[in-house]
Design brief:
Number of strands: 5
Helix content: 40-55%
Strand order of the largest sheet: 3-2-1-4-5
Oligomer: single chain
Distance between the termini: 12 Å
Strand content: 5-15%
Structural class: alpha/beta
Largest sheet: 5 strands, parallel
Number of helices: 6
Number of domains: 1
CATH architecture: 3-Layer(aba) Sandwich
Order of helices and strands: EHHEHHEHEEH
Radius of gyration: 14 Å
CATH superfamily: 5'-nuclease
Length: 141
């Protein structure tokens, strides 16, 4: 099964609108078309950003908690190591990169492709939500 890490910006986009590729990616996750890999470090970032940004488009803290609980219920938990050498332009992206590399996922899905230089994340494909949807379509029998 395809395994992926989702950048926080994918969750934000999906919660803001049901009309984009990010929302479709979450729908595909709910349908079991890929395995979402998550770690406490990433979950902490999800929570912080969604609770900070969510009120601007009508999300309450309670709604964010319910959303994250549902996300975690279907996700694959992974424990990242304590040793990690930062290597990305934006320090906030480090937990995602660490999880993708240590968790040996195939894909990191993000709207900020330039934040994740391929040469620093060997073995992980950095893709947009629309690219990821195409990959999911091609993997169907």
């Amino acid at each position: 099964m395809i395994r992926a890490v989702l950048d926080t910006n994918i969750l934000l986009a999906a919660l803001r609108s049901r009309n984009g590729a990010s929302f479709e990616v979450l729908q595909r996750f709910r349908q079991g078309e890929f395995s979402l890999v998550i770690a406490n470090t990433v979950l902490t970032e999800y929570e912080e950003v969604l609770k900070r940004e969510g009120p601007t488009f009508g999300l309450t803290g309670v709604t964010v908690n319910r959303f994250l609980d549902a996300l975690c219920a279907g996700a694959e938990a992974f424990r990242v190591s304590g040793s990690w050498k930062p290597s990305l332009p934006d320090a906030d992206d480090e937990p995602l990169a660490q999880l993708a590399l240590e968790g040996k996922v195939g894909y990191l899905v993000t709207h900020n492709l330039r934040h994740f230089p391929a040469e620093r994340l060997s073995g992980v494909r950095i893709v947009s939500p629309s690219e990821f949807l195409q990959i999911l379509k091609q993997s169907k029998p």
